[in-house]
Structure to design on (858 residues):
DNA sequence: CAAATGGGTATGATCTCGACA
DNA sequence: GTTGTCGAGATCATACCCATT
């Protein structure tokens, strides 16, 4: 929401300042689509590509456009008609305003309410007049940022481009691969658009102009100098120099190019810079686009510029605009878009939906997005140069199943799927993997593929007749080359060994009030590397997850790829990631099987600990063939418990290592915790949950002074979060009566948003996230819930610091007295935690939430 | 028969770690 | 004893081959 584009910059870029091609002209970017060109001809031949034709600014009438009115007035019908494209066709609307709201053919331009002037040549012109050089000026807003289109600055590009998902503007992305419009990715996703236009998938019909465009704009290239050759030997593997210098269009073997959806986003974005995903959000009217989305007390408004950016706005909904510039910037899903505009299978315009990076709950009191069947823990992703390796499967051989619970509507909904991180602390779209649409005889689920801000998203139907259940048999995983991604400007992730992903599912549920509830659920991690599935041991289950510090208890570890040589190593790391303890457990080789290990838990290094200690263990088959670390808790020996504040108890208990500088003692509201923990060596999860029966704290994590707590609670925690940069990043403004129906997003911090619910509580079948937006308590309007849920779980991270951990004292919000356990909230100032500790926290919270849910169900 | 799928593996790049200065 | 460099081996990433469906 905070990304803006100043077209002046774009024009400068396009004028060649940053373009390697001196004679590069903006118009060149479109010529490949000119009628009669090879590309255009192919498009005409291929109805699947036809929509791209509209991207030619000079020949818009030549291309088979869907009758605009069809789009605009098309009722929101099940999107899986014979030709679902009809629902998702890029909209070049009739110039005449219709229905009181108008969406413009325009780049994705996001404007805060404070913006008063907006000018765009095409905003109020018929698309006939759409200029390939639209101008966008925002007087007084010179600070509006336009992210450098990577393909325009190959100098830097090795070119890394700042394909920031939030800021990506297809408009500014002339580096498209028109000939690839039916291909897998390069033309679709800006993420790899700039990067993979050099993908060997070169169509024979590619025109010289196209090549020019690609050559001129694409920085990183595939090294493959010839079709059908491997990029490695004998020509040698790519080097960074090759990325910098290669202008070749390597051919390559394409096993099974992605069956393209309509790619309205990407297609448009790719073929007509400036459209892209904007089409989803502002794509109903040719001359107008909403520049502001304003909500007053009871009404939603959409503002449209008039008269070249002068502060004249048409008002939608025939409603009176009470304030052009609300005091608080916010972003709501307007009612008017809930249905009439169909984008892909999704009834909501993309731009009105929360960014993929944003955290969303998996459930509310009314709905729950539930992953009924998890995917297999391993799936071999395919490279672009390979064909598809099929859809992600379930352990049983079927496919993952996702169901929306609690939905009583009759309209089908759209389930979105994309690939998210699994190893990152923050759940976000994975930079190195993309979802890949699978089609074929074996695929029963129709799907539609689009690209949202550089992330491929599959949309599949959730229909009431199927009990709002979807079988995910159409989702494969595409691996992007590490070098390509890492060369992107601003990309900090490393591809190497970053091979775990999660399937992220989203659904947006229109509400009677015209707003929308968005839910998100993430699958278990999926290891996408090739070899791991056959070599790396995989721990799937352990019968106990805690034990007294003295050890000695038998633990049964079930999983895969265990061998007679498998060892189980327990280890402990400090907050900064330094390993301080390691102990090999004794494995009963006589009992152990390839899928099961019988392990004797070793004693902890210090039997005098007073806090439960979270450690990890892993199974290792050989050098470096080790499983992912698993959680384990050593519980202290019985000792007199010390009365203290409940908060301290929680703080100490949850993250003893995190606060190991603290001398606080473990305590327990009922003074029995320590004893219970210690005496129940091999504490069962149920028992462990019980320790939180008196509390259901909301936890706010903060790192680096940038906080996440917001709204009401932020005030409550303001004494803790003293950092002046502490900002609200996610606000739920809904009153208990309207709660999740309106999700407000602060436009200032979206990049900071972690997937808190996911990061803290990896979803499991029986452990759905219980994360609500600020200010929302299901208990308030759900009498059936006898236990409250955490109100806020947000997590934010800054760069890891080598400095030693700084214990942060958290305070219970003053208005949440500790004697009201259900209201108790805990704020934890978190500093420099490494993943292990975060995992620890996650685990604790997960158990806590599970316990809460269990109690709620009981 | 063609396409999709999936397993295997060749090969260069990169990383790890010990030896040595 | 510490630090930096080098090189061999291990590991990883990428992509081609090919059998199966």
């Amino acid at each position: 929401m905070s990304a803006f584009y100043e077209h002046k910059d774009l024009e400068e870029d396009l004028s060649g300042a940053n373009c390697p091609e001196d004679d590069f002209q903006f118009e060149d970017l479109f010529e490949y689509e000119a009628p009669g060109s090879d590309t255009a001809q192919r498009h005409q031949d291929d109805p699947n590509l036809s929509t791209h034709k509209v991207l030619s600014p000079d020949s818009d009438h030549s291309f088979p456009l869907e009758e605009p009115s069809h789009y605009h007035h098309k009722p929101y019908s099940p999107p899986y008609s014979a030709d679902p494209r009809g629902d998702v066709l890029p909209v070049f609307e009739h110039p005449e305003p219709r229905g009181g709201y108008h969406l413009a053919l325009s780049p994705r331009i996001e404007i805060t309410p404070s913006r008063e002037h907006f000018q765009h040549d095409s905003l109020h012109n018929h698309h006939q007049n759409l200029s390939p050089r639209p101008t966008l000026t925002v007087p007084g807003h010179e600070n509006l940022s336009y992210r450098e289109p990577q393909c325009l600055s190959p100098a830097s590009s090795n070119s890394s481009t700042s394909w920031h998902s939030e800021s990506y503007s297809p408009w500014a992305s002339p580096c498209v691969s028109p000939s690839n419009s039916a291909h897998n990715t390069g033309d679709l996703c800006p993420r790899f658009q700039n990067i993979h236009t050099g993908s060997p998938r070169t169509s024979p019909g590619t025109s010289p102009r196209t090549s020019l465009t690609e050559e001129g704009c694409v920085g990183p290239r595939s090294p493959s100098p010839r079709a059908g050759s491997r990029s490695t030997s004998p020509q040698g593997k790519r080097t960074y120099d090759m990325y910098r210098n290669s202008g070749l269009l390597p051919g390559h073997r394409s096993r099974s190019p992605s069956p393209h959806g309509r790619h309205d986003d990407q297609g448009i974005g790719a073929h007509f810079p400036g459209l892209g995903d904007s089409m989803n959000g502002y794509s109903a009217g040719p001359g107008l686009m909403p520049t502001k989305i304003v909500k007053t007390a009871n009404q939603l408004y959409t503002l449209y510029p008039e008269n070249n950016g002068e502060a004249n706005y048409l008002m939608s909904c025939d409603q009176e605009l009470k304030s052009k510039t609300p005091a608080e910037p916010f972003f709501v899903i307007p009612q008017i878009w809930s249905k009439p505009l169909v984008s892909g299978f999704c009834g909501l315009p993309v731009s009105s939906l929360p960014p993929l990076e944003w955290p969303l709950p998996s459930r509310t009191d009314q709905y729950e997005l539930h992953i009924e069947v998890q995917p297999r823990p391993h799936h071999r992703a395919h490279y672009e140069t390979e064909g598809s390796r099929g859809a992600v499967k379930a352990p049983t051989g079927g496919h993952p199943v996702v169901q929306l619970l609690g939905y009583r509507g009759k309209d089908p909904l759209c389930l979105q799927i994309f690939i998210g991180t699994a190893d990152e602390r923050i759940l976000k779209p994975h930079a190195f993997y993309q979802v890949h649409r699978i089609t074929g005889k074996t695929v029963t689920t129709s799907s539609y593929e689009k690209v949202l801000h550089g992330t491929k998203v599959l949309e599949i139907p959730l229909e009431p007749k199927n009990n709002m259940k979807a079988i995910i048999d159409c989702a494969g995983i595409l691996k992007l080359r590490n070098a390509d991604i890492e060369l992107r400007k601003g990309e900090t992730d490393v591809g190497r060994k970053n091979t775990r992903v999660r399937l992220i599912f989203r659904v947006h549920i229109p509400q009677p009030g015209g707003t929308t509830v968005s839910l998100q659920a993430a699958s278990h991690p999926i290891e996408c590397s090739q070899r791991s599935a056959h070599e790396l041991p995989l721990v799937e289950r352990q019968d106990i997850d805690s034990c007294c510090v003295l050890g000695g208890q038998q633990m049964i570890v079930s999983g895969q790829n265990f061998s007679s040589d498998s060892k189980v190593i327990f280890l402990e790391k400090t907050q900064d990631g330094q390993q301080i303890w390691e102990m090999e457990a004794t494995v009963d080789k006589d009992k152990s099987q390839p899928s099961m290990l019988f392990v004797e838990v070793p004693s902890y290094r210090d039997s005098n600990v007073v806090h439960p200690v979270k450690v990890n263990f892993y199974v290792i088959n050989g050098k470096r063939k080790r499983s992912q670390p698993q959680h384990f808790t050593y519980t202290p020996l019985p000792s007199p418990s010390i009365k203290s504040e409940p908060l301290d108890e929680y703080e100490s208990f949850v993250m003893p290592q995190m606060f190991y500088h603290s001398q606080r003692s473990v305590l327990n509201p009922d003074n029995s915790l320590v004893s219970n923990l210690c005496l129940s060596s091999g504490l069962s999860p149920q028992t462990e949950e019980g320790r939180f029966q008196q509390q259901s704290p909301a936890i706010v994590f903060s790192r680096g002074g940038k906080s996440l707590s917001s709204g009401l609670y932020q005030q409550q925690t303001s004494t803790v979060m003293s950092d002046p940069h502490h900002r609200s990043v996610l606000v739920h403004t809904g009153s208990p009566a309207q709660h999740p129906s309106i999700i407000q997003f602060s436009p200032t911090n979206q990049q900071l948003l972690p997937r808190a619910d996911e990061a803290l509580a990896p979803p499991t079948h029986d452990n759905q996230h219980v994360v609500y937006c600020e200010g929302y308590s299901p208990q308030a309007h759900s009498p059936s819930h006898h236990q409250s849920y955490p109100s806020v779980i947000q997590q934010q991270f800054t760069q890891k610091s080598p400095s030693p951990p700084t214990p942060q004292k958290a305070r219970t919000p003053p208005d949440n007295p500790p004697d009201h356990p259900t209201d108790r909230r805990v704020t934890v100032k978190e500093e420099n935690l490494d993943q292990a500790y975060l995992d620890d926290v996650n685990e604790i919270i997960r158990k806590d939430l599970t316990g809460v849910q269990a109690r709620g169900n009981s």
